[in-house]
## 1
Amino acid sequence: MATPSKAEAILKNRCPRCRQGKVFTHPAYNLRKFDSMYDDCPVCGLHYEVEVGLFYGAMYISYGFSVAIVFIVGVLLYNLAGDPPTSVYIATVAGIVILAAPILFRLSRILMLHFFSGINYDPSYSKV
Ligand SMILES: [Zn+2]
């Protein structure tokens, strides 16, 4: 198995150090457990929360995504639906943000791990 690229590792929710170990224990569509993570990488043993509160930062990333959704959906509704009543904006945005919550939660944590945790890819931890 070739080592995945950083982008692949992010899309597949893999460990930032070995790019092989899973970060989450269940698939995103498992709504009861989409948020449960391994404490340590099952392949290289990296403790994911390298400092206490690391994942609080993921909330800011998630917030950024939510703001982007509000903006994009707002612009689309205004232009494509002819500026509907405010309740339509609110219902549409709320629906999309709620439906996307498991994906945004996971993506935010993965981005936090890969870009802001200080952990770098190290091929010596990959099992070939
Ligand atoms: Zn790992």
## 2
Amino acid sequence: MEAVSPSATSWLHTSVGRKVVMAATGIFLMSFLVVHLAGNLLLLRSDGGAAFNAYAEFMSTNPLIRVLEILLFLGFVLHIYQGLYFIFRERAARPIRYSLNRAEANTNIFSRTMRLSAIVVLVFLIVHLRHFFVEHRLLGSPYTMYELCVAAFENPYYSAFYVLSMVFLAFHLAHGFYSSFQTLGLILNRRIERAVRWAGAAFAFVIPLGFAIIPLYFLLRTL
Ligand code: HEM
């Protein structure tokens, strides 16, 4: 266990500080998932992609969204940096196991597979960003965002990878949602505990399912 320093920067390098960063960025990323899913569901409208393309255009040009995008990027970088630290430190520090194996939280398959789900979600993020963000925003693809999505989702390999990744995201959230509230000391009594458990289970089920439905819809359309 590292010594707790009075300075804020060194506090961020303590075990507790690192955990708080994971929890705070985790909650921020979960709120992003809700907004992202709401936008993606526009793909299901039968308007030839008009609403989705208008949304994509708004997201890439609105100055406020651009600022939020930078915050989101920083949130991901911090979460992934600290997450990789926990994953590799956990390996190096065995048998002194830290949070990834906390006895009280380590009672189900979701907490036990946190490292695996983290790595799969990380690989998914890289592939996903390469496919859409880099292609459209950085390389200036001649195709609209809607066309890029349809082409990707009509590919059974891409869709299978996408759906499988959503299963791992569900696992990550099934433990992560509750864990983040616990880390931040927000589980003040039994009623709150039960509510957070239910909300976490619902969130971990509904959000990845919502994302997974979209590639499945486009894939099934091709049959
Ligand atoms: C949209 C994507 C993601 C969301 C919404 C998310 C959300 C969360 C949440 C809420 C937690 C619980 C924090 C806590 O225990 O206090 C967590 C934990 C964790 N996340 Fe993520 N995460 C995402 C992506 C990733 C990625 C790409 C990695 C890759 C390194 C990662 C690595 C981890 C690890 C290792 C933990 C466990 C930390 C611990 O037990 O102390 N996460 N995540």
## 3
Amino acid sequence: MAKTVKEKETPADPAAERADEEKRLAELRRVIDRLDAEILRLFNERLEAARAVGEVKRRLGLPVRDTRREAEIFRRLAGLNRGSLLADRYLVQVFAALMAAAREVQSGSPHAADGFGTPSLFAVFGNPVVHSLSPVMHNAAFAATGFPGIYAAIRAADIRPTMAGVRALGFRGASITIPHKEAVLSCLDYIDPQARRIGAVNTVLNEAGVLKGYNTDGEGIVRALGERVEIAGKRVAVLGAGGAARAAAFGTRREGAAVTVYNRTRPKAEALAAALEVSFRPIEEFDPSDADILIHATPVGMSPNAGETPLCRDRLRPGLVVMDIVYTPLRTRLLAEAEAAGCVTVDGLSMFVYQGARQFELWTGIEAPLDIMRLAVETELAARG
Ligand SMILES: NC(=O)c1ccc[n+]([C@@H]2O[C@H](COP(=O)([O-])OP(=O)(O)OC[C@H]3O[C@@H](n4cnc5c(N)ncnc54)[C@H](OP(=O)(O)O)[C@@H]3O)[C@@H](O)[C@H]2O)c1
């Protein structure tokens, strides 16, 4: 009996334990080596099939790049991967590498499938800009499509020298964000008529030194909202009178809505209302029975001030469609209270992805990989908590 107790108390031989763990490690590494070899074999088998597809495409006179098919493949992979250990951001990279290699073997030569030259530079300029999700979204799109682009977030205190830098350094494109969307207009060589009407530019395209300005926010809002509700004939209330609010008022009015702008500062709302031929009222006068759709377009409630909301909950009513274009956090206090009040809610993610997709298409001339852009933003938001 005493012996048993003694045996139990005797510490295990550390050298033997270590030897066991090393044996286990060696076994696991053999499994990994075997799996790596299998993955490589499967990659090459896949490329053989892709090469054969390339030959068929050549005979049929079809182009190597097929964005729709690539998006289909990606959707399928993302679905199969749901709930797995492989994080979606790595799936995007694996997918991008697979597509790039497949395009190369289909075309028979490196880069020929893309027809692209040296990498192009892109950036979002704003102040502050460090939390921008645009780099994650656009770099994922470049990786997935094989377009050789590099996208950074750059803090810009003054937009004029920044635009001179874009020209001098040969940036291919830029996203413009708070607080420069209006001031940037005077730094450009050409302004798209729609952006001029809105009075704000969020996208710059540099065509051989000629800087062209566009606004993709309006299209982003209309596309995101239009997925959830018919806009034509509705009464739309826009909260705010900044760049995003102007895009919201312009976009929804063009879709056939009757728009009223509500803003804290009266002269700004008056100017917006006059320029876009919409109505305005002070924000305190917002009455939910006067609107079918409410678009919140101020930074109130954005991190790190997520506890704030632009409207008291007693201004919400069941059936009102409430869109918050703030997307950090995705579920703002306004949306949480709107949901509790029985409103239909639309968050800012789809608008962000759609405005970014249009930017990507303006810069590259190729169809934006929407699914990948959305997934990249969603996973980044989830990672940031
Ligand atoms: N989802 C997307 O894709 C997307 C795209 C663009 C922008 N956004 C978001 O939209 C928001 C607005 O952007 P913006 O470019 O339009 O900004 P902006 O040009 O600076 O305009 C800000 C507007 O918000 C109002 N405002 C600011 N603080 C306020 C407060 N405490 N109470 C009441 N009103 C207040 C301002 O009113 P005053 O006139 O009284 O100063 C102004 O009308 C930002 O959070 C931005 O991140 C989202």
## 4
Amino acid sequence: MKKLLSIDLNFNNVPRTIGTYLMETEAGLVLFESGPQSCTQTLKTQLGTLGYQLSDIKHVFITHIHLDHSAGAWELANNGAMIYAHEKGITHLHDPEKLIRSATRIYKDQMEALWGTVKGIPHERLRPLTDGDEIKLGESVVTAIETLGHAGHHHIYKIEDSIIAGDIAGVRLFETAGVVPPAPPPDLLIEPWQESIKKLKSLAPAKLCLTHFGTIEGNAAITKHLDDMSRTLDTLGAWMHETFPLAEAGRDKALAELTALLRGMIGNEAHIAAYETINPPEMTLMGVEYYYNKHIAR
Ligand SMILES: [Zn+2]
């Protein structure tokens, strides 16, 4: 069994918000999720404690192109890594202008501080993947599995009985807190997301590796996590369809209600700040507004 080592990127100086997973193979080091470029220095330091440097990473698998998962990939590509992502995400990794524009609407003047510098990746360093693709790296095989709902180009990656879940299994930063569905614009869809959770369950992984954050082990714990995720996703879906359309009293009121809903899902006051660092309610509201305009208001 290849060991997937979890590395905490200490995003924005908050532990357990963004993780990445490292695997040693005969074909060099493999990294799952690059994390943002603002965390590349932390990644370098963590690799150093393991006796490695950035250029030892030869393959980087990105679950989807949201900046918390992909913004550091160009620097790894510049250091010689091949970057793998869903075929629909590849264009944006090559030319991130549209991605940056859309993220700027959410993060405004915090873009650079949060995500670092984002640059395009040359085509020869990019490998598009489609559902079911198997990449052999020495003795290891990485299988890409399309899982939509959070983004229109999301893959989870299966390595033996472990799954790199990206955002499809939600945000669960601490065992003592709940799971929250991250819902930024523009691709949020509840039903395909529920299908993706079913697909994930049917794979019956022994380890579920969350980007936000850490590894959940064992069938019972994973099933419980996925059931919780499915339930909170339905709660968010119901709020979008039933409560949000009535919140014409104003955006501030909608934001306050949504914040309360998400905090209820977290369920542990001590951890609210960490959750809101990686999954700000304002971002979720923008996801809901986009969804409402696209799918409900027409
Ligand atoms: Zn995402």
